[in-house]
Amino acid sequence: MKIKPAKLLYDTTVYIDVLRDQFPVTGQLMLRAVEAWHSPVTEAELISAVGLLEPQNPRTRSIINRIASVIDQRPAQRTIVPDVVVWREASILCGILARLQSFDKVQRRRLMNDALLFVTARRHGCTLLTRSLSDFDLMLQLEPAGRVLFYRV
């Protein structure tokens, strides 16, 4: 028997796939049937992408507007800000994984954001929705109390 999660915390991959019109149609139905929760971590990752865009590219303004629209649609009352405890637990989890996997500084920085999302979801009774199997699978192995729902595009 499959149990449908009541609350989903979205990973950045969800927003990216929605923006690219690549999120699975079957997944879209599920998104409407559960509580959606958001994190400033994903907002920061989306906004940092804006800085990577080439200002001269004619598509840049449209992409920025789409990203801003997605962020503006996120209700503040459904945003979970990581507290000090979440930061500490995520930092430890990130450090352990970085050591076990011999990650470099760039990989550790990306992993820290994923660890923040994972720990935030666990502490607030959410299931993390992501297509990023590699990092979150490792986190689940170290912290089996977390819940992650993976999808494919």
Summarize the structure.
By secondary structure, this protein is of the alpha/beta class. The protein contains seven helices and four strands, in the order E-H-H-E-H-H-H-H-E-H-E.
Instruction: Output mean pLDDT.
Output: 92
User: From the alpha-carbon coordinates, what is the Rg to the nearest angstrom?
Assistant: 16 Å
Number of domains: 1
Strand content: 5-15%
Please outline the helices and strands.
Blueprint: E1 7-10, H1 12-19, H2 25-33, E2 35-37, H3 40-52, H4 60-72, H5 84-101, H6 105-123, E3 127-130, H7 133-142, E4 148-150
Parallel strand pairs: 1-2, 1-3, 3-4
Helix pairs in contact: 3-4, 5-6
What do these coordinates show?
With 153 residues, this protein is α/β, with parallel strands linked by helices. The protein has one domain: 5'-nuclease (Rossmann fold, 3-Layer(aba) Sandwich), CATH 3.40.50. It is built from seven helices and four strands, in the order E-H-H-E-H-H-H-H-E-H-E. The chain has a four-stranded parallel sheet, sandwiched between helices. Helix 3 packs antiparallel against helix 4 and helix 5 packs across helix 6. The longest helix has 19 residues. The two termini are 24 Å apart. The mean pLDDT is 92.
